[in-house]
């Protein structure tokens, strides 16, 4: 039982990175396809990915150490077991004539069988709930193929990674796993009490959504923060030089790049949007500085100055209060107003007389 918990712990440790490599791209392509990210569906997919990883690791872990005599020790001990329902015979052998519900449930053979049934119950549930498979036969077949994949992985010693098998290939596992998947599919009939994760219709793509706006600024901010943390911070220990380099980075990324790409940073390119002037004229450095300079560079400079004053002055409460007040005003103007206004143009766009449109559009309604 401890080995099972160890596998789950391993999944928890390594899952976030694997999820980022699988679920995040899915969410992005879902967004590109239908115009928004279905939070409920993405969350359930995230849970499914964690389950799939854990189920696979339960069939291969713990990995044994390859030592001298590794295969000699396992000769005759991990041969394939093709005889079906062997677990019934093992269970009766363990209870030794003491046939009672308690003794059967307590036996090791029953526990292993129960675990094999439980292993793919979630798969059957997800097939109907998440992937909208309505056919019980198809769901059962998928469960059988998943179990067969696990057994072939064991039969081939992790596809040749080990010199010989270290786990059994068992027909009983195929039977019990498949039965578990069928049970999960039946249980999923009652999933109507859970949040709806069915695919929704396409969103009207005539306007830039709030999701697009904030995902774009999130991607751009993340790139700038990572570059600052891993590149700029290690160049010098001079506070003012570092501040100058950070301002230069912000200017280059948000202003110079936007000018060269007709209103698109990497984040906006990724989300398929761009900045244009309300009067339809070409973007200029003056407009971009008005848009980004006042609302990105200015808050950064205020933050750097406030940090310096707080670090060097004895009574820093006033500086901290003023800085927090400034941030509150900035947040209202750049975030809250964007939410409240029907056209989603915050102070940033209104000050610079700009707006955001889909990259494949050239007009302004």
Automatic annotation (TrEMBL):
Alphabetic keyword roster: Membrane, Transmembrane, Transmembrane helix
Pfam families: RDD, VanZ
RDD domain sequence ranges: 209-352
Membrane topology, from the record: Multi-pass membrane protein
Compartments where found: Membrane
Domain (VanZ-like): residue spans on this chain: 48-189
Segments passing through the bilayer: 12-31, 43-66, 109-131, 138-162, 174-193, 214-232, 238-262, 283-301, 321-340
Name assigned to this protein: Glycopeptide antibiotics resistance protein
């Amino acid at each position: 039982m401890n080995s099972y918990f160890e596998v789950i712990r391993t999944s928890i440790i390594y899952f976030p990175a694997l999820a980022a490599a699988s679920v995040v791209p899915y969410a992005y392509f879902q967004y590109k396809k239908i115009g928004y990210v279905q939070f409920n569906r993405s969350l359930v997919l995230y849970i499914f990915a964690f389950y799939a990883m854990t189920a696979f690791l339960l069939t291969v872990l713990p990995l044994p150490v390859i030592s001298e005599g590794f295969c000699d020790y396992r000769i005759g001990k991990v041969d394939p077991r093709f005889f079906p329902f062997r677990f019934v015979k093992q269970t009766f052998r363990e209870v030794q004539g003491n046939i009672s519900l308690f003794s059967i449930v307590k036996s090791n053979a029953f526990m292993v069988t129960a675990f094999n049934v439980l292993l793919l119950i979630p798969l059957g549930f997800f097939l109907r709930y998440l992937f909208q498979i309505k056919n019980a036969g198809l769901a059962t077949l998928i469960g059988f193929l998943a179990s067969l994949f696990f057994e072939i992985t064991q039969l081939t010693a992790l596809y040749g990674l080990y010199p010989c098998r270290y786990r059994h290939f068992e027909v009983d596992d195929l039977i019990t796993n498949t039965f578990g998947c069928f049970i999960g599919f039946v249980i999923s009939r009652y999933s109507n009490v859970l949040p709806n994760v069915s695919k929704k219709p396409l969103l009207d793509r005539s306007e830039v959504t709030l999701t697009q706006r904030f995902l774009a600024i999130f991607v751009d901010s993340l790139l700038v923060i990572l570059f600052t943390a891993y590149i700029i911070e290690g160049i010098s220990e001079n506070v003012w030089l570092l501040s100058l380099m950070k301002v230069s980075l912000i200017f280059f990324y948000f202003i110079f790049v936007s000018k060269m790409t007709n209103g698109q940073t990497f984040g906006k390119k990724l989300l398929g949007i761009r900045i244009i002037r309300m009067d339809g004229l070409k973007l200029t450095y003056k407009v971009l500085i008005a848009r980004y300079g006042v609302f990105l560079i200015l808050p950064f400079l205020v933050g750097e100055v406030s940090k310096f004053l707080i670090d060097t002055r004895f009574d820093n409460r006033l500086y901290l209060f003023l800085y927090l007040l400034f941030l509150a005003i900035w947040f209202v103007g750049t975030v809250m107003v964007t939410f409240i206004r029907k056209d989603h143009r915050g102070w940033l766009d209104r000050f610079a007389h700009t707006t955001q449109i889909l990259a494949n559009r050239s007009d302004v309604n």
